[in-house]
Amino acid sequence: MNSAVYCVSWVHKKSGYQEPSEYLAVKQVVDAARQILARPAECKEPLSSVLVQKVISHLENGNLGDFQLAALFSLGFFGFLRWDDLRHSSVDSFYFADSHVAIFLEKRKNDQFRKGSGVFTACCSTPPCPVKIFENCKPLQRFSVILMRVAYQERSSSA
Question: Whole-structure pTM over 0.85, yes or no?
Answer without folding.
Answer: no
